[in-house]
Amino acid sequence: MAALRPPRRALLRLCRAFSSGGCQLAPERGGERRDAAPSRVSRFCPPRKSCHDWIGPPDKYSNLRPVHFYIPENESPLEQKLRELRQETQEWNQQFWANQNLTFLKEKEKFIDSRLKAKGLELRAESGQKVTLNAEEMADFYKQFLRKNFQKHMYYNR
């Protein structure tokens, strides 16, 4: 089934609507962080004169979509505080999930390596294909990983 697309004229009007007026977006502050995960929030950049928050493509490491926050010209101190808190929360989420995903991938590789070595197998078969574990063996890893990281997830969800 083909995807429905809006007419080209509608897209042009929409783009013009987003780019009109004297508006600015909050600067992206998540690019220079990360101890464990060498991620950088997407280079996605909305039009300079946009008057709306923009949501970028998913971050390579956290899989979260970064938000570029709109700053109105007449932003009140209370609105500014809310926007800054939203930015801080977004940055915290980006860092948490980038680190969590990196830890998951590293531990998964170690688990697979150890299970394959226990079976006397190499990481790659003679044909060059990567050897994998079956779903039941991977379920053991997922269970262990969730148990080991339970407190982290509880802290995240508090």
What labels would you give this structure?
5% strand, mainly alpha, 158 residues, two-stranded antiparallel ribbon, disordered N terminus, elongated, 4 strands, two-stranded antiparallel sheet
Secondary-structure topology with pairs:
Layout: H1 8-19, E1 24-25, E2 54-55, E3 67-68, E4 70-71, H2 77-119, H3 135-148, H4 150-157
Antiparallel strand pairs: 1-4, 2-3
Quick structural gist:
The protein has 158 residues and is mainly α.
Q: Which sequence of strands runs across the widest sheet?
A: 1-4
- The coarse overall form would be elongated
Order of helices and strands: HEEEEHHH
Largest sheet: 2 strands, antiparallel
Oligomer: single chain
Mean pLDDT: 78
Binned, the helix content reads 40-55%
Low-confidence stretches: 1-8, 10-23, 28-36
Which percent band covers the strand fraction?
5-15%
**Amino-to-carboxy terminus distance:** 42 Å
